[in-house]
Structure formats: structure tokens, C-alpha cells
């Protein structure tokens, strides 16, 4: 998931709002990426029902739009949890306990990568570098970055992260 | 009195916002500047107080420390006091050219920027012909800092020589390599230097539009850049009349969507056009047929942010740093298991060993160094015995190492090199664009083969198979992703066979003609 896209809380999917976003952006050059980014930022995901409208507005085939959505990690097609928690899996974090943090995160949340907790609070995503390598291990909750994250700090961060459902 | 608390994302990740909030609460009358980071990350959050024109540093400051600091009046004898910022050893010893302003200024203040030499390079450039501008960059010896190290002046010359109605400057801010954060730091700490560099690139090559392709993992950079672009437009540095010259340059930020391969320049251009980030065949070069088929300069953030100082101080001044064909400075990012992680800008030629052991203070764990990976996830692992290399493109190429974007990740002796090699290929598979078979299929087959070696299933035969597969990927892949991802794996196999449960050193050494890209 993208940071730009992960700005929780998201609003429920609205076809008319989605059409408004498409109409607002579709005249830009290379408009497909900004449209998809904005849909994910607003709703947390891209409902496949909107693919034909995007395709028509940009004079693309539905296959082309689907191809772009499926290529990028940020563009999900199902609703995420209320918060997106991304744990860095890259080398610098691995060098100082990142693997233990990954295991702790999966065990503590009871989910594997790309899955959402039963209570809908968190969707766990892997990320390959958050640019916080000098403060490894790192993770990001929505757009909030954390560094030097121990398993204990992970528990504090997740306990402190909640909005009214 | 003036206070400085960084807004750099890494400082924020350690609680800088909470520190700033507590200072505001305790000292509501005091001016607070949210600066960039100096890159001394073991001291972050690094708080400074300016008194009588001198900045005194304290760090690392936790929110709980704020009360005590305020009560003692931020006195020099507080245990967290580091003395004058400019005299901190780790900072004072550096050759800060690209990062000369980062940390010192309010990132969004145009006045601050100009008071520290900002836009003086552009003002000089506005007096020059496009050819003279390109010559200046060529004479500086600047090479692409994104990783490929292609001479920036030659790239600009190609675009200048092309006839086209529309040319583009594209800044590659898809800084995806693990262990790198220099782009992020400069975008958050001194965004106008990037903007100024892009304007100069535009004036030099005849391009009137620029895009910063920014990775979505950098929301803090996005916010700073968008604010900076807005202010630069208002002040007339961007738009239809750059600095009153009558010449146009428009700039905008374009967000990526989480694809490592979009750091490859042709995949980046595809993405900018709204397509899947699949790499393109070369030729044609992006300089001739780039964004929307038009001549396009694609440069890394650090390359572009270095352009202003080259114009301000002169090509000769910049080229005086460094050695051989590695001119100027490298913005080294030291990370992983290291006592003093951070951003270190030095002229090329600093020995890697000195960087890690003396400047970086050795491993954070205090255990011996086992391996060092330079140049991001596609760079080979070096052993502790290989660290005598001076940091330069030539020396690294000779020593089977990669400079890349300047990332250096240190591992102590607890690292399991077989798992790291497995991870390299797993990462390679997840991030492959899928266009060429060696990379798309090879990465997956490679980690499966590594799994068999680790499991002890016919290990010697599987090692031979893995080495053969790696050779196919090196020579058969379309771009550096599939072409370089075998290097960390082969180097791990060569130097640490015991981690794979293998005996003895392999005979298959790394190919000597490893591309430095």
C-alpha cells in the first residue's frame, strides 16, 4: 500500500465520488496513475466496478486499466483494514532485528502479509525500504513513520493506533 | 533565542514532533524552526538552540528530556549537550557540497535558502548560453548518482542537440534501494536545491516542463516538495518567467505506487505515462525518445540537487574533490548494523574501512563485521577482508563492488548470508516487471534452488544449477534488475558457503566485467 494511499480513515466506496475524481483528473497527461492514486487515497481501494468508466474516460481498454491496477503494489481492489501497517523487510532492517520484528508482527496480529486482522483494525503489508535505514528497523502506520522498532515498541504503537470505528 | 527541531521523516520516526510540541508548550514565545536533518541519526532527534548567532546542539532528545532541558535553560553543561553544531566531529569532517544547507535552513524558507547561497547558481546560469551550461556540468565530472554513474553532461548534451517542440526534465525520486535515504533527506531538508537544479537543467537543454517521480513510501517528501513548488511559483522562480528571464519552467510532483522497478529510468517513464512500469528496450535512449516520445533528461535527485553548487562555485571547484573519473563528492548513506548511521558526504576516495570502523564506529552490536552490502539490494556482499577499497567508481568496479546510489549496509557476525541471498531473489521476484524471461522466471527458480541447498537436498548439484542460472540472468536480462540481482547471491555463495551448509569455496568467481550500474 502506498503512503499516499494509506491516509486513513478511508470513506466508504461511492460510485458518484469516484466518477467525480475521474472527471477532475482525466485531462492530465498520464492521468491513469493519478486517478488510481486518488481513488485509493479516498476509499482505500479501487472497486473493479469503476474500471470501465476509467477506461472510457481515458480512451483505454479495460484490460489496459486492469493491467495497471494489477502491476502496482499500492492499487488494491478490496477494502483494507482501518489502518495499513507496513513493516520494512529490506536489508538494513534485517541487519538489526527486522526479521524478528516481521515474525512478531505476524504473530501478534495473527495474520500473514496482505491480510487484515479479524477486528478490521490493521492490514499488514510488507514494504521494501521506507528510507528510514539509519533508524532501522522501521515500520509505517498509515503515513506515520516509526524507527528503531523493537517488538515491545511494536506493541505500544499498535495499542496506541486506533480511531473510532 | 531560536529553537530547531527537525521535520525530517527519520527524526519524526523517533518522536521529533512530540519533542517539538513539548518545547512549544514550555516556551510558547520562542521561535521554533522545523529544519531538515544533518544526517547524524544516532543523535536524532537533534535539537538546537541558537544563541548569539551560534547554534548549540542537544541529542538524542526524547520527549521526556524536554522538561529538564527547559528548566536548565538549555545550558551547555546539560548531559545531552553536544556543543556547537558546526563543531560536531562527524559533521565538521565532511565535504558538504550537495548537503551544504541541509539541516541549517528552514527547508521551505526562500529567504533562508538565498541567504545560504541558494539561486546564485541559477542566476549565473541565466547569464550563460545553453551550450556553456552543459559544458559546465560536463567539466564538473558529475556522474549520475542514482546508480548508473552515467556522465550527466553527456546526457544533457544529447537532449540539447535534439530538436523538439517539447522536452522534459524528469527527476528520479523513486529511491527504492535498501540502505539509501539521501534523496529523501534533501527533498525534506533542502527542496529548493533540487528545484533549482531542475530549472538549470531545463534552461540548459531547452526543456520547459519537469516532473519529480516520487515513490509513494515518502509522504513527508511529497508534502515538503509540493509546498516548496508552490512557494517557488509564487516567488517567480517557477512558471512562465523564471527569475524574470522570460523563460519558462513548470514543475510538478508525480506519485509512484509502490514498484521498485520504476526506479529504472525507462520503467519510470512508462509509469509517468500512466502505464505498467515495464522497462523499455534501449535504444532509443530516453535522452532522444523519452517521456511521451520526446527528448528527456532523467536524473537522480542527488545529481540534480548537486547542479546548483557546481554553478555557484564553478565546475573546477567541484571537480577538485574526488579521484580519477570519480569527481566531486558522494553522499554516502551508512546503515544497517552500525553505531553511527547517517549521511556522510565526502570526496570520492575515502577507504570503506575508515568509513565503517572509524567514522561509523563499527557495528551497533559491538560484534565483528561479517559482511557489507554497498549499492543497494543489487550490490554484492563484501567480506570484512575486502574493506580496504577506496570508495570510487573505478576502485569499486575493480574490487567486485558497486557504488550504486551510495548506500552502505553493515551486517555483524549474526547475519545468515544464505537467508540474505534467498531474500535477494525473493525481492527480485516480487519486484520484477516481468518483461524478460531471465528475470521474471529466473528469480523465482533461483530462490527455490537456494531453498533446496539450505535444506541439504543435493546441495552441490543445486549450487552448480544456481550459479548457471545466475550467469544466464546476468547476461540475458534486459535491465539491471535481473542483471545485477545475482551478484549478492553469488558473492554470498562465494564468501560464505558454510551458511548454505556447503563446504569450501566455489571456483565460480564473479565475472570480472561486472557493470557498475
Structure keywords:
heterodimer; A: 165 residues; Glutaredoxin; 2 domains; four-stranded mixed beta sheet; 41% helix; B: alpha/beta; Rossmann fold; Ubiquitin-like (UB roll); five-stranded mixed beta sheet; 22 helices; 16 strands; 39% helix; globular
Task: Please tell me about this protein's structure.
The complex is a heterodimer of chains A (165) and B (517). Chain A has 7 helices and 4 strands; from the N terminus they run ααααβααβββα. With 165 residues, chain A is an alpha+beta fold. Chain A folds into 2 domains: 15-71, no CATH class; 83-160, Glutaredoxin, CATH 3.40.30. In chain A, helix 1 runs antiparallel to helix 2 (32-43) and helix 3 (51-58) packs across helix 4 (62-71). Chain A is elongated and about 50 Å long. Mean pLDDT of chain A is 93; it is low at 1-7. Chain B contains 22 helices and 16 strands. A 5-stranded mixed sheet of chain B has the order 2-1-3-4-5, with no helix packed on it. In chain B, strands 13-12-16-14-15 form a 5-stranded mixed sheet. Chain B has a 4-stranded parallel sheet with strand order 8-7-6-9, sandwiched between helices. The model of chain B is unreliable at 506-517 (pLDDT under 50). The interface between A and B is large, with 49 and 63 residues.
Amino acid at each position: 500500500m502506498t503512503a499516499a494511499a494509506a491516509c486513513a480513515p478511508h470513506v466508504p466506496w461511492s460510485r458518484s465520488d469516484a466518477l467525480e475524481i475521474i472527471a477532475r483528473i482525466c485531462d492530465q497527461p498520464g492521468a491513469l496513475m493519478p486517478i488510481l492514486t486518488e481513488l485509493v487515497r479516498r476509499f482505500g481501494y479501487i472497486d473493479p466496478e469503476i474500471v470501465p468508466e476509467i477506461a472510457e474516460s481515458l480512451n483505454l481498454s479495460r484490460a489496459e486499466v486492469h493491467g495497471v491496477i494489477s502491476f502496482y503494489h499500492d492499487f488494491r481492489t478490496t477494502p483494507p483494514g482501518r489502518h495499513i501497517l507496513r513493516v520494512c523487510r529490506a536489508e538494513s532492517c534485517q541487519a538489526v532485528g527486522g526479521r524478528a520484528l516481521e515474525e512478531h508482527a505476524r504473530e501478534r496480529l495473527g495474520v500473514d502479509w496482505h491480510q487484515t486482522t479479524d477486528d478490521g483494525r490493521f492490514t499488514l503489508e510488507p514494504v521494501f525500504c521506507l528510507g528510514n535505514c539509519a533508524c532501522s528497523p522501521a515500520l509505517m502506520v498509515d503515513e506515520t513513520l516509526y524507527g528503531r522498532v523493537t517488538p515491545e515498541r511494536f506493541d505500544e504503537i499498535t495499542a496506541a493506533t486506533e480511531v473510532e470505528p | 533565542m531560536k529553537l530547531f527541531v527537525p521535520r525530517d521523516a527519520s527524526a519524526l520516526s523517533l518522536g521529533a514532533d512530540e519533542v517539538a510540541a513539548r518545547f512549544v508548550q514550555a516556551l510558547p514565545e520562542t521561535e521554533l524552526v522545523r529544519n531538515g536533518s544533518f544526517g547524524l541519526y544516532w543523535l536524532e532527534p537533534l535539537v538546537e538552540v541558537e544563541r548569539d548567532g551560534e547554534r548549540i546542539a542537544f541529542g538524542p532528545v526524547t520527549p521526556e528530556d524536554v522538561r529538564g532541558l527547559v528548566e536548565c535553560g538549555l545550558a551547555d553543561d546539560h548531559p545531552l549537550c553536544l556543543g556547537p553544531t558546526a563543531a560536531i566531529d562527524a559533521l565538521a569532517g565532511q565535504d558538504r557540497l550537495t548537503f551544504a544547507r541541509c539541516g541549517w535552513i528552514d527547508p521551505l524558507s526562500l529567504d533562508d535558502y538565498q541567504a545560504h547561497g541558494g539561486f546564485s547558481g541559477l542566476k549565473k546560469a541565466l547569464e550563460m548560453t545553453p551550450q556553456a551550461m552543459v559544458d559546465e556540468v560536463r567539466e564538473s565530472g558529475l556522474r549520475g548518482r542514482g546508480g548508473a554513474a552515467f556522465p550527466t553532461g553527456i546526457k544533457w548534451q544529447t537532449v540539447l542537440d535534439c530538436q523538439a517542440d517539447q522536452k522534459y526534465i524528469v527527476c528520479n525520486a523513486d529511491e527504492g534501494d535498501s540502505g539509501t535515504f539521501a534523496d529523501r533527506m534533501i527533498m525534506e531538508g533542502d527542496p529548493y536545491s533540487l528545484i533549482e537544479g531542475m530549472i538549470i537543467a531545463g534552461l540548459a537543454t531547452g526543456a520547459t516542463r519537469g516532473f519529480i517521480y516520487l515513490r509513494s513510501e515518502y509522504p513527508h517528501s511529497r508534502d515538503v516538495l509540493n509546498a516548496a513548488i508552490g512557494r517557488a511559483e509564487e516567488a517567480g522562480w517557477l512558471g512562465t518567467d523564471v527569475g524574470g528571464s522570460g523563460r519558462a519552467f513548470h514543475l510538478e510532483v508525480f506519485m509512484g505506487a509502490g514498484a521498485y522497478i520504476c526506479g529504472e529510468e525507462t520503467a519510470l517513464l512508462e509509469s509517468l505515462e500512466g502505464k505498467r512500469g515495464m522497462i523499455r528496450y534501449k535504444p532509443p535512449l530516453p535522452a532522444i525518445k523519452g517521456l511521451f516520445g520526446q527528448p528527456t533528461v532523467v536524473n537522480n535527485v542527488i545529481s540534480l540537487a548537486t547542479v546548483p553548487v557546481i554553478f555557484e562555485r564553478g565546475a573546477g571547484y567541484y571537480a577538485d574533490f574526488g579521484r580519477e573519473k570519480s569527481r566531486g563528492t558522494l553522499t554516502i548513506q551508512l546503515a544497517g548494523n552500525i553505531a553511527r548511521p547517517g549521511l556522510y558526504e565526502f570526496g570520492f576516495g575515502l577507504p570503506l574501512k575508515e568509513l565503517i570502523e572509524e567514522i561509523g564506529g563499527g557495528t551497533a552490536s559491538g560484534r565483528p563485521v561479517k559482511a557489507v552490502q554497498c549499492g543497494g539490494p543489487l550490490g554484492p556482499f563484501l567480506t570484512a577482508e575486502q574493506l580496504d577499497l577506496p570508495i570510487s567508481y573505478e576502485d569499486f568496479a575493480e574490487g567486485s563492488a558497486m557504488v550504486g546510489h551510495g548506500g552502505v549496509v553493515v551486517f555483524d557476525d549474526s547475519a545468515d548470508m544464505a537467508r540474505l541471498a534467498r531474500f535477494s531473489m525473493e525481492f527480485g521476484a516480487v519486484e520484477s516487471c516481468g518483461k524478460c524471461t531471465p528475470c521474471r522466471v529466473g528469480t523465482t527458480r533461483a530462490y527455490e534452488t537456494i531453498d533446496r541447498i539450505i535444506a541439504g537436498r543435493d546441495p552441490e548439484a543445486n549450487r552448480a544449477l544456481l550459479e548457471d542460472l545466475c550467469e544466464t540472468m546476468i547476461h540475458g536480462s534486459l535491465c539491471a534488475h535481473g542483471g545485477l540481482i545475482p551478484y549478492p547471491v553469488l558473492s554470498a555463495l562465494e564468501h560464505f558457503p558454510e551458511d548454505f551448509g556447503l563446504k569450501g569455496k566455489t571456483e565460480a568467481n564473479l565475472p570480472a566485467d561486472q557493470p557498475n550500474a
